[in-house]
Design goal:
This protein has a single domain (9-186), classed as 3-Layer(aba) Sandwich (Rossmann fold), CATH 3.40.50.150. It has 7 helices and 9 strands, in the order ααβαβαββααβββαββ. The chain has helices spanning 9-21, 29-39, 55-63, 77-82, 117-120, 123-129, 157-164, and strands at residues 45-49, 69-74, 93-97, 109-114, 130-141, 150-151, 154-155, 168-176, 179-186. α1 packs antiparallel against α3 (55-63) and α2 packs parallel to α3 (55-63). The termini are far apart.
């Protein structure tokens, strides 16, 4: 990795909660740095569908310009009680209890981070939640050297749909030998 090894305090708090909870699906460092970079170019509302332990929101908060609002939704009651303490000094982050649909009221979004596979399947709903020029980052794909993408012997229809939908300019990025993500910009 060609980046400093230090981790901002806000991100360190989210990673510590992940460690204490045994939450192994926390946002990868590479994905987090990408989210912070994209957040720096955004205004308005930046949303995350699936808070987990707050790693993605912590990264976006660190990168977001003044005035940008970060909303995140988590349906696990234990996490919705624990995560807000991470953001006690981050005025731009709001953690909401509930499934991802509770954030629809704050749309349109300029940046949308989705790392819940079932939510990614709702491409029509998600497309309507993004402003023109808004960016969706879809995480947790397994790289595939084939087209259409094959995972576990089956076509990955979610990835195929996002990469071919005319409403988006989209690209898949390899972030680690065993992980990729999709960045899709709403036309």
């Amino acid at each position: 990795m060609s980046a400093p090894a230090e981790v901002p305090d806000l991100v360190a708090r989210a990673l510590d909660l992940s460690r204490r909870r045994g939450f192994i699906t926390s946002t990868r460092n590479e994905t987090g740095r990408l989210l912070a970079t994209l957040a720096a170019s955004r205004q308005g509302t930046l949303a995350e569908l699936g808070t987990g332990c707050g790693g993605g929101s912590a990264r976006r908060s660190r990168g977001a310009p003044k005035g940008a609002r970060i909303g995140t939704a988590e349906r696990d009651p234990d996490l919705t009680r624990a995560v807000p303490a991470i953001f006690h000094d981050a005025e731009n982050v709001e953690v909401t209890a509930g499934d991802w649909t509770v954030l629809e009221q704050y749309a349109p979004f300029s940046l949308l981070f989705v790392d819940v596979r079932e939510v990614m399947e709702s491409i029509d709903v998600l497309a309507d939640l993004l402003e023109a020029g808004g960016i969706a980052v879809l995480d947790d794909f397994v790289p595939s050297p084939f087209w259409p993408p094959i995972v576990d012997g089956q076509v990955d229809t979610v990835r195929e749909q996002w990469l071919t939908d005319e409403r988006f300019a989209a690209v898949e990025l390899l972030i680690d030998p065993d992980a990729s993500l999709i960045i899709a910009t709403r036309r």
